[in-house]
Amino acid sequence: MGSASSKIVLKSAREIELMRAAGRLVHRVLSAIEAQIRPGTTTGELDALAERMIREAGATALFKGVRSPQARYPFPASICTSVNEEVVHGIPGDRVLKPGDIVSVDCGVRLNGYCGDAAWTFAVGRPSRRVQELLDTTREALEIAVRELRPHIYWSVIARQMQRCVESRGFGVVREFVGHGIGRQMHEEPKVPNYVERSGRAADFELLPGMTLAIEPMVTAGDPAVEFRDRDCWSVVTRDRSLAAHFEHTVAVTETGATVLSNGS
Predict the structure, then answer these.
(1) In 10 A of CB 88, how many CB atoms?
(2) What DSSP character marks residue 36?
(3) Which CATH number does the domain 13-260 belong to among 3.90.550.10, 3.40.640.10, 3.90.230.10, 3.40.50.800?
(4) Which segments of the chain does DSSP mark as H helices, in order?
(5) Quick check: 200 and 153 in contact, CB under 8 A?
(6) Terminal CA-to-CA distance of the chain, rounded, Å?
(7) pLDDT digits (tens, 9 = 90+) for 69-124
(8) Within its chain, how far is the Cα of 191 from the centroid?
(9) Rounded-to-integer distance, Cα 61 and Cα 59, Å
């Protein structure tokens, strides 16, 4: 959501700690939502829980009120809840979660002027073996990025490993939506893709200490092509209506590797 600035902004140690505080709040919200995921819960109830927790913490929800050039109205909720074939930007409402569903919950906050952003995908009830593999693979792609992140290598080195992990298991990597820089603004430079293509070499970037990135693999059980489902132009779905999963962390590049700012630590 939103637009990025034209320059990568490196953060000081103080700024990274402020972002960690925002990330801790995001982690608390997602953990509370996880405890509420069960058949019969509506996505609107999850949003109400998140909105209350964010407000009580003295923070603001990053997504609520965001405008998009193609959308007919600002985003109306505090979190995104993307169910089954929805990839990202699903709008919470009266949809009732059922056994066998999966729901990706994306939460972003601004606390004391700095942003935190993360997403988890949850199974409602017991998932099938293939659905569990989809969730595990998407989470593993994110773990690869965190593990391999270090200064003075190029992002494409990591993105290639993420892509290989996903595609070697028969899943697809979404191209149209990628990760992003983050800091005082929800979306800053650079764009952080989860794949490598020849045409994208010009957008590759060197990882430097002080970079803060929202890394967010989006993985499909079928073809990776996506589209807007409705005329509202918010909810993004797989074109073939296959299931999709989404995991995200806010991460800072350090002198020796990476520190995750949205894992509750």
Answers:
(1) 23
(2) H
(3) 3.90.230.10
(4) 13-36, 43-56, 129-148, 155-167
(5) no
(6) 26
(7) 888 899 999 999 999 999 999 999 999 999 999 999 999 999 999 999 999 999 99
(8) 13
(9) 7
